[in-house]
Amino acid sequence: MTELVVEGAVEARANVNIALIKYWGKAPGELPEDKNLPAVPSLSLTLDGLYTVTRVAFDPDAEVDRVFLNGVELDPGGTARARVILDRVRALADVAAPFRVDSVNHVPTAAGLASSASSMAALAAAAARCAGLDLAPDALSELARLGSGSASRSVFGGWVAWEGRSARPVAPVEHWDLAVVIAVVGTGPKAIGSRAAMERTTRTSPLYAGWVGQAAETFREALDALTARDFPSLVAAMERSTMRMHASALGADPPVLYWQPATLAVLREVERIRADGLPCGFTMDAGPNVKVFCAGADVEAVSRRLTPIPGVAHTFVARPGQGVIVRLVTQERP
């Protein structure tokens, strides 16, 4: 334990992460601490330049927790995910006071760019420190998982694996000079959120069992390729995981379809770029945007090919990023 922060606030910054090997499906759990346990292992890269800054302070005059996202106070339904983390922090620290949370996303919210991962990781780190908890990285990862499964990975920088109660780093930022060109097809909220889509897939898709059954082998192949810096093998595992995840969702009733016409156009262009001799590979989360991995030196060439595609709003480049950062601040709001 460290000291409670009763004067001022605690601010945490967490980056998004992009899953190469997908988390799609939850394992059953009996306890509140079992929330969002993964049914399949996943492998991700934490990215720089796409992040959430969250400030947490005790608010003893309030009756309940108050959560603000990009300056707008969320209603009780909108605060439910944050409250799971805040309640767990209060239980671990043996405190009762409500919190005020101010969170600013520097990434399009709910657009398939992992904003929930960065926001929940930042919240967990800031709230824990505010309450005087000095959590080890694996314990902080476990706490972040309660708000969003993929948030367990955003606690760490570089390449991260998640197979159980917490994630773990498997290679540092400098392990491999790769970058990601992100083709933004949709910037607004999704028609169905990841959590609801995952639950529907698990409950209704006849393809879900096959998805779970193959996941461990694909994960191991990707991890071996990462260790060896074997780009073709990493791309093969990454694209296989992406397409099989989306196939399981398409098999749901009713189907979950995130793709837009420009999504498929980007995938076809990636195939053509590869055929022209430039190594690259795609991945997609639960959304229409496409993330294209390539060597750091090739980002301009890839961007030039993807940006003119009709339906692509814009492209931008992200590179490997660090894990969550925490600092004490004065009481001014972000």
Give an overview in words.
- The protein has 334 residues and is α+β, with helices and mostly antiparallel strands.
- The chain has helices at 80-93, 115-130, 137-145, 151-154, 194-204, 208-228, 231-250, 261-275, 299-306, and strands spanning 9-21, 42-58, 66-69, 72-73, 99-106, 159-162, 167-171, 178-184, 280-283, 290-295, 314-318, 325-329.
- It has two domains: 9-173 and 325-329, Ribosomal Protein S5, domain 2, CATH 3.30.230; 177-318, 2-Layer Sandwich (Alpha-Beta Plaits).
- Helix 1 (80-93) runs parallel beside helix 2 (115-130), helix 2 (115-130) packs across helix 3 (137-145) and helix 6 packs antiparallel against helix 7.
- The radius of gyration is 19 Å and the shape is globular.
- The mean pLDDT is 94.
Largest sheet: 8 strands, mixed
Instruction: Give the % helix.
Output: 25-40%
Q: Beta-sheet strand percentage?
A: 15-25%
Low-pLDDT runs of 5+ residues are none
Distance between the termini: 26 Å
Oligomeric state, counting identical vs distinct chains: single chain
By DSSP (H or I, 4+ residues per run), the number of helices equals 9
Question: CATH topology of the largest domain, what is it called?
Answer: Ribosomal Protein S5, domain 2
Query: Into how many domains do the coordinates divide?
Result: 2
Mean pLDDT level = 94
